[in-house]
Amino acid sequence: MYSWFGEKIRIMAKTRLQPMYFNTSLLFSIVLVFPLLQLGSCSSDYDILSESIIKDATKEESIFIPVLQITEFIIQSIDNTGLNSDIVGVIDEEKNLIYIDIDTSSTSTLQLKPTITVDSASTVTPDTGTPQDFSEEVTYTVTTENGEEENYTVIPIIVEPENVEPEIVETPCSSNREDSGPIIVTEHNQRIENLHIKTSNQHGIEINGFTNVVISNCIIEYTGAYMGIKFSEADNLTIENCSITYTDAPSSGPLADATRNCIEGFDSQNLVITRVKVEDGSTGIRLDQCDESVLTYIEGHNMRGPFPRGQLVQYDKCIGGLLEYFSVINDREIAWTEDNISIYKSAGQQIKNGLIVGNNSPRGVGVMIEDQNTEGARGGIGALVEDVDFLQMGNGVASSVEGSGNVTFNRLRAKDIICGELGQNRGQAESNALIFAAFETTGGNKIIDCLVYDSCNPTNIIWPEYSFEVVDYRDDIDFEPRAPIVLDFNCNAAN
User: Fold this and answer.
1) How far apart are CA 461 and CA 412, in angstroms?
2) What's the rounded Cα separation, in Å, for the pair 388 and 313?
3) Residues contacting residue 311 through CB under 8 Å, at least 6 positions apart
4) Of 63, 89, 172, 299, which residue has the fewest beta carbons closer than 10 angstroms?
5) CB-side exposure of 173: number of CA atoms within 13 Å?
6) Which residues, 6 or more positions from 8, have their beta carbon under 8 angstroms from its beta carbon?
7) Among residues 182, 228, 191, which one has the least CA distance to residue 210?
8) Residues 388, 353 contacting (CB under 8 angstroms)
9) Tens digit of pLDDT for each residue in 235-286?
10) How confident is the model at residue 68 (pLDDT cuts 50, 70, 90)?
11) Which of 255, 253, 213 is nearest to 230 (CA)?
């Protein structure tokens, strides 16, 4: 009888049940009393014995049997930077397998911290909260106090990001787009649309102190020491379906000065700039103290500078803002670049889904975040650069420097890095073809799931490495760059 009971305990301990408590006194009593009851119903010494045993059964003596089981496996967003929602493991209790879905478009497979729940009398190794690389299977061992062990295997199901590129954006077009000289806005809610504006003696469109203005379906050609569109205190401005070009630019090299931007705005909130092409300006879009702007489907060509201009987009003392779906193609024998995207004394920007080709500045980089905690800076620290491809960079791909911090470079890809002459006799890059930089930073910077292919200086990828909280990149896989944005402004009689 006792050997049978012991075997039952061992079998039950190996089953997938919750922890159980057994009253050994009561079980012993039942085993003894049951055969005695078969002898008859008359009072006897056996009845007295039965009553005595039953009374003794009230003296409980419980034993705890731990269960070798993981009852919950979850990767929580609160514990993992960059994770948008919790990843809950699906547990196969018969096979000791745990399946997790990881979408690499929203998180890296590296450095994920799981929360693992086991029985209170058991431990798990590696311990809960220990960062793991879930690009491959990971084994966990559950161990009881008496040394019994059970292994679980976590199997990641990797969902690769879809490389979905924006199609050619056909902007609304009108056959009756009218020729026009420059426009000065004179009232709130004014609409400027369906115009072909040419100017050489003032800004193409100027807005000062008027809100809710809409500029739609316009072609602006400007020259001289002027801007294509210049605005200030113009909250809720919308610029859509527009092509803006600085005409009469030299065949190569910089413009005469740095004040000839395609679009420039000051002290204006909640801007929307979408489906806009900028070409041959000092800078494509320059925003100063313009908070929470939304820039989408921006096509840029040959930014001309000179210093300190030369950007596709520059944020200056701005709080927040989204730049998504964009491309800039700079012919290094024509353009005169600095940083392609500049985040200066600004914070909270998100730069996503873009293509940057060509930088011939010895000091400029693809995306620069700097001076977030210096005098005049606004918005604190932090920025996100995500899903951007970089080609023909010389001095750097992405940098968080001089007082900036909490910057995440996620899924950036770079190749065709330049080690020699940058173009137009501008010399060689001062960084000797560095890829990522984070010097004089406040910390918290991350490189996540990035790719650097066939760098011309493979020993000069990150500097200094200790300035990055996470370093996760590969250097052995080629890639097809994302397609550039192409906006169609052609009009004909059928439109």
Assistant:
1) 13
2) 14
3) 283, 284, 286, 303, 337, 338, 339, 340, 341, 342
4) 63
5) 15
6) none
7) 191
8) yes
9) 999 999 999 999 999 999 999 999 999 999 999 999 999 999 999 999 999 9
10) confident
11) 213
Residue 1 confidence (pLDDT) above 50? no
* Residue whose C-alpha is closest to residue 266's, from 313, 314, 295, 232: 232
The answer to whether the beta carbons of residues 455 and 435 sit under 8 Å apart is: yes
Mean pLDDT of 362-377: 97
User: What is the three-state SS of the chain?
Assistant: CHHHHHHHHHHHHHCCCCCEEEEHHHHHHHHHHHHHHCCCCCCCHHHHHHHHHHHHCCCCCEEEECCCCEEEEEECHHHCCCCCCCEECEEECCCCEEEEEEECCCCCCCCECEEEEECCCEEEECCCCCCECCCCCEEEEEEECCCCEEEEEEEEEEECCCCCCCCCEECCCCCCCEEECCEECCCCCCEEECEEEEECCCCCEEEECCCCCEEEEEEEEECCCCCCEEEECCCCCEEEEEEEEECCCCCCCCCCCCCCCCEEEECCCCCEEEEEEEECCCCCEEEECCCCCEEEEEEEECCCCCCCCCCCEEEECCECCEEEEEEEECCCCCCCCCCCEEEECCECCEEEEEEEECCCCCCCCCEEEECCCCCCCCCCCCEEEEEEEEECCCCCCEEEECCCECEEEECCEEECCCCCCCCCCCCCCCCCCCCEECCCCCECEEEEEEEECCCCCCCCCEECHHHEEEEEEECCCCCCCCCCCCEECCCCCCC
Q: Token pair for residue 169? A: 């954006």
Cα–Cα distance for residue pair 57/284, rounded to 1 Å: 87
317, 378 in Cβ contact below 8 A?
yes
End-to-end CA distance of the chain: 94
Instruction: Tell me if 396 sits within 8 A of 427, measured CB to CB.
Output: no
pLDDT in tens, 435-490: 999 999 999 999 999 999 999 999 999 999 999 999 999 998 899 999 999 998 87
Give pTM, 2 decimals: 0.69
**Residue 143 tokens, joined:** 């161990």
Task: Return the structure tokens found at 344.
Answer: 């200066």
Please, is 416 exposed, middle or buried when counting C-beta atoms within 10 Å of its C-beta (0-12, 13-18, 19+)? middle
Interhelix angle 45-56/24-37, nearest 10 degrees: 160
Q: What are phi and psi of 368, to 5 degrees?
A: -120, 125
Name, in order, each residue with C-beta under 8 angstroms of 258's C-beta and a sequence gap of 6 or more. 282, 283, 305, 306, 307, 308, 309
Alpha-carbon span 86 to 38, nearest angstrom: 59
